């Protein structure tokens, strides 16, 4: 696809503001925004029947998005809470097969693909079982809860040849594809620092999800939920707010850092960092959780064939009294790429060849005669075109209103099933994104700098 077909220039500034609404780029009142154009490539010559295991927030969201793709039919759901299964029939129809035992869903011959949207500690077990049953698998991020589980998922995918995609939908965004092209074209110079933050200040954002009034042992298979973790009495808080516990989830790094790492690896082609150090605290949400609500981590990325050495700092703060906010900045020697979710900006600040003089400078301490001699020699050394001030520019790019990168991620998944085309985020990519996030947790709890082998995907 050519550049012209992938984007168009919007020069009506009023139209820009109306189109972008309240999004990150809507404040660019005096700037031109290049709108990116999605690639229409949906083919639905045959029907794909899907089942979903784990009908929580992500489960319902994923099913809704998958059904927007032509030729996809939702036929079965599994969940350990009866209320979720009742909601499935209420929303999608009474003919949907529902069960509390995911194995019953996997045994159905009429299911081609499954979405795995369970708590993190179940991802590997269900994904492996599904591939063994010949199903294609769309597994929510992070791909696994433990690093060694990731290697088992990779081995199973390679052996069964199943289509397997991790659900970090950002890597399918048309904005990320364009950002990658711009980065590879050298528009920000040499990358040296990446910094990102994703801060929140509300209860739902801190995973204090609502607990239904009918959360009883009769309606929830709590023992199965626990899997191989420590046996504890029935606790609906652990079941519905599982992200708050390291036994079932992966904390801030697994939920949020992995998005940022996935985007970074996609744009730069990186395999991962070599050193990781994390610090943090439990500041505000002291609700029984055993994971922090503030995490800051430093990642050292070594020089490779695809990128120079650079440092990355990630921060998530659930106790942000300013109200929250987020950004991701790729900082280079000649510019910065500021990445939104489905939009980005490139700001350039290219230095002049001449270093300049005056201002906060020793030149002001010279005698008048010495200053005159200095200027004469300076002008002879640097022609006029090299003495121009630093060149500044700014461009903005955005997907059109209504664009959904998660839908594109599912299109990629189903397209792979139909054509054999490689998925955009396979199991190896998934572990290379999840691994550094999981090591971040290890570093936080051990209070140590940890070394990561990005090629072999293991702690050194």
From TrEMBL:
InterPro entries the record matches: Gfo/Idh/MocA-like_OxRdtase_N, Gfo/Idh/MocA_oxidrdct_glycsds, GFO_IDH_MocA-like_dom, NAD(P)-bd_dom_sf, TAT_signal
UniProt domain GFO/IDH/MocA-like oxidoreductase: residue ranges: 239-337
Domain Gfo/Idh/MocA-like oxidoreductase N-terminal, first and last residues per copy: 48-167
Cited Pfam families: GFO_IDH_MocA, GFO_IDH_MocA_C3
Gene3D superfamilies for this protein: Dihydrodipicolinate Reductase, domain 2, NAD(P)-binding Rossmann-like Domain
GO molecular function per UniProt: nucleotide binding
Protein name: Gfo/Idh/MocA family oxidoreductase
């Amino acid at each position: 696809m050519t550049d012209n077909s992938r984007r168009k220039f919007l020069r009506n500034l009023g139209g820009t503001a109306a189109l972008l609404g309240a999004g990150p780029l809507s404040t660019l009142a005096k700037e031109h925004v290049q709108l990116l154009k999605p690639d229409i490539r949906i083919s639905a010559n045959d029907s794909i029947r899907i089942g979903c295991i784990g009908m929580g927030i992500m489960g319902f969201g994923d099913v809704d998005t998958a059904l927007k793709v032509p030729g996809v039919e939702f036929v079965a759901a599994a969940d350990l809470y009866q209320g979720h299964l009742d909601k499935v029939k209420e929303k999608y129809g009474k003919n949907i097969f529902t069960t509390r035992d995911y194995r019953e869903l996997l045994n159905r011959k009429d299911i081609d693909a499954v979405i795995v949207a369970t708590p993190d500690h179940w991802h590997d077990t269900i994904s492996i079982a599904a591939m063994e049953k010949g199903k294609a698998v769309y597994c929510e991020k992070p791909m696994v809860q433990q690093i060694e589980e990731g290697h088992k998922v990779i081995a199973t995918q390679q052996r069964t040849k199943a289509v397997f995609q991790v659900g970090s939908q950002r890597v399918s965004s048309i904005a990320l594809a364009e950002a990658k092209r711009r980065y590879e074209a050298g528009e920000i110079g040499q990358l040296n620092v990446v910094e990102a933050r994703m801060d929140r200040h509300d209860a739902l954002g801190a995973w204090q999800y609502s607990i239904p009034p009918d959360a009883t042992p009769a309606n929830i298979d709590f023992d199965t939920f626990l899997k191989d973790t420590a046996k504890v009495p029935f606790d609906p808080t652990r079941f519905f707010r599982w992200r708050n516990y390291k036994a079932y989830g992966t904390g801030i790094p697994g939920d949020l850092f992995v998005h940022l790492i996935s985007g970074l690896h996609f744009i730069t082609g990186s395999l991962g960092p070599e050193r990781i150090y994390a610090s943090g605290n439990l500041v505000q949400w002291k609700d029984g959780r055993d994971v922090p609500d503030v995490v800051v981590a430093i990642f050292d990325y070594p020089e490779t064939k695809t990128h120079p050495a650079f440092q990355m700092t990630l921060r998530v703060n659930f106790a942000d009294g300013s109200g929250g906010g987020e950004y991701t900045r790729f900082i280079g020697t000649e510019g910065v790429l500021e990445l939104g979710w489905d939009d980005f900006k490139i700001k350039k600040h290219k230095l002049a060849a001449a270093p300049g003089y005056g201002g906060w400078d020793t030149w002001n301490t010279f005698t008048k005669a010495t200053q005159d001699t200095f200027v004469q020699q300076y002008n002879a050394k640097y022609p006029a075109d090299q003495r121009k001030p630093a060149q500044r520019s700014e461009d903005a790019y955005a997907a059109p209103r209504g664009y959904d990168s998660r839908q594109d991620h599912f299109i990629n998944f189903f397209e792979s099933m139909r054509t054999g085309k490689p998925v955009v985020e396979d199991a190896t990519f998934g572990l290379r994104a999840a691994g550094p996030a999981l090591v971040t947790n290890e570093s936080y709890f051990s209070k140590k700098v940890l070394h990561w082998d990005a090629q072999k995907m293991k702690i050194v």
